[in-house]
Amino acid sequence: MNTFTIVMIVIIVVLIAACIALYFFGKKAQKKQAEQQEQMDAAAQTISMLIIDKKKMKLKEAGLPAIVLEKTPKYLRRTKVPVVKAKVGPKIMTLMCESKVFDVLPVKKEVKAVVSGIYITGIKSVRGGSIEAPQKKKGFFRR
């Protein structure tokens, strides 16, 4: 056997091993994600709130509680997350939001939202309007 065939066999074996490892790792991660989703659904409640402001900002700049920063993995602390400032009752709170909900969330309007802890997972209704995503601006070349 020449060296080229030996190298190719070794590469193929390594690739097969990597695919098998990724399969089992993905299966484990999927189970973990399903358990977390069940916990979030169990803790979910519908709250009426007035949306003051919404932005995508880093976790450190968002003004979230310190325990949220401690529980977040280090590689995710610098990523930008959707953050919503809302008036819930007499209190102004800073909440995190799902990206799908963030696009649809109207500013300066009262909404009934499904909240699990400090995480907005859905919108039930909007007072004085409908739940629609705003129209995005067309780019220069799309015009």
Overall pLDDT level: 87
- Main sheet summary: 5 strands, mixed, barrel
The structure class reads alpha+beta
* Strands side by side in the biggest sheet: 1-2-3-5-4
* Helix amount: 25-40%
Number of helices: 4
Number of DSSP E strands = 5
| Integer-rounded radius of gyration | 22 Å
- The end-to-end distance, rounded to whole angstroms, is 61 Å
Shape: elongated
Enumerate the spans where pLDDT stays under 50 for 5 or more consecutive residues. none
Relevant terms:
143 residues; 5 strands
Write up what this structure looks like.
The protein starts with a helix and ends in a 17-residue tail after the last strand. It has helices at residues 3-42, 59-62, 66-71, 99-104; strands at 45-58, 80-88, 91-97, 110-116, 119-126. The mean pLDDT is 87. The chain is elongated, with a radius of gyration of 22 Å. With 143 residues, the chain is α+β, with helices and mostly antiparallel strands. Strands 1-2-3-5-4 form a five-stranded mixed barrel.
Reconstruct the topology from this structure.
Elements: H1 3-42, E1 45-58, H2 59-62, H3 66-71, E2 80-88, E3 91-97, H4 99-104, E4 110-116, E5 119-126
Parallel strand pairs: 3-5
Antiparallel strand pairs: 1-2, 1-4, 2-3, 4-5
